[in-house]
Amino acid sequence: MGIQLIKIAAVYFFIGILLGMYMSINHTYNYSSIHAHVNLLGWASLGLAGVIYHLFPAAGESIFGKVHFWLHNIGLPLMMTGLFLLVHGYEAVEPVIAAGGILVTLGVLSFLYTVFTNIGTRHDK
Ligand code: HEM
Ligand code: HEM
Hints:
By secondary structure, the chain is mostly helical. The protein has one domain (2-118). It has five helices and no strands. 30% of the residues are buried. One protoporphyrin IX containing FE (HEM) binds at residues 32-33, 36-37, 40-41, 44-45, 101, 104-105. This is Cytochrome-c oxidase. It comes from Paenibacillus campinasensis.
């Protein structure tokens, strides 16, 4: 699962950088918050979680690691797509952004739990 996360993170990295290039070339900074979160929640956070799950397989294989994987990977695209539509004036999507953010937050809570219960313990081989 760590390897899968690293691959997913690399895709976010490319999308995040494309948005950065788009903004720089066009001098339009309206995608700034999407760019920031695709890079930070997608590339940086998922990539780091992937490396952690690879180093500590017990954390990734635990039910909480799997819950984190799914909540983060469902919540983030929802949040980013919603934010994209919001930037384009579709204010009705705000609940979708909120739902995506809540899913990611619950996913990170699950990550916190698996890190504390599976790393630095006798299970962390
Ligand atoms: C080719 C690569 C990149 C380009 C061309 C680029 C370009 C940009 C641009 C044009 C902005 C908007 C600045 C503004 O609103 O004044 C921005 C904001 C931002 N970028 Fe990038 N970026 C790149 C890579 C990255 C990466 C790799 C990360 C993080 C891992 C990152 C994190 C951020 C953050 C957090 C902001 C928001 C800053 C703020 O609102 O104060 N960027 N970037
Ligand atoms: C569920 C998780 C998260 C939610 C719901 C969230 C929400 C937000 C919101 C509402 C803003 C203000 C956006 C604006 O003014 O346009 C913001 C800004 C920002 N957040 Fe997050 N955030 C989350 C996670 C993170 C994480 C994990 C990082 C860093 C690793 C991060 C880094 C930033 C940065 C650098 C900014 C300022 C960039 C900008 O101009 O938009 N956020 N976030």
